[in-house]
Amino acid sequence: MFSDVGVLELATLVVLALVLYGPDKLPEAIRTVSAVIRKFREFSEDAKRDVRDGLGPEFEDFEFEDLHPRTFVRKHLLDDDGAGLEGIRDALDPRPELKGALDAVRDAAGAEGVRDSPAGPGEGPVSPRKGEGAPPAGRPPVDPDAT
């Protein structure tokens, strides 16, 4: 219930309780709070039991914790082994499609008589070949790395 409460926070709560209730009333306050927590847990378990009974025998193994989105995905999609996660990541990875599109643009640019820069293939701006002059009017030079 209080899994994220550290030692410093717990010590602060104890000192605050001592100041508010005093050492003579503190045990009675602790008993009252623990009784309220116990009643709340009983009420919660009774409600869970009523819901399970209402769902019928096919939902005997139903756990309310399974309704949390992470638990639901881990249990039903990943089969608790985590191996399906890599498949999902690979299926959603856009890099292969983008690489194919980039290759197609480079092939199309090469077919139009455009060469790579002196820095090497696929690097730097692309310029027309010598002797071809400027690109036709109204058409900008092709830069396949920019796409």
TrEMBL record:
Superkingdom assignment: Bacteria
Annotated keywords: Membrane, Protein transport, Translocation, Transmembrane, Transmembrane helix, Transport
UniProt keyword Transferase present: no
Region named Disordered: 99-147
Membrane topology: Single-pass membrane protein
Biased composition (Pro residues): 137-147
Pfam families reported for this sequence: TatA_B_E
Major location (coarse): membrane
Entry's Gene Ontology BP terms: protein transport
Localization per record: Membrane
GO CC terms, sorted: membrane
Protein's recorded name: Sec-independent translocase
Organism in which the protein naturally occurs: Streptomyces pratensis (strain ATCC 33331 / IAF-45CD)
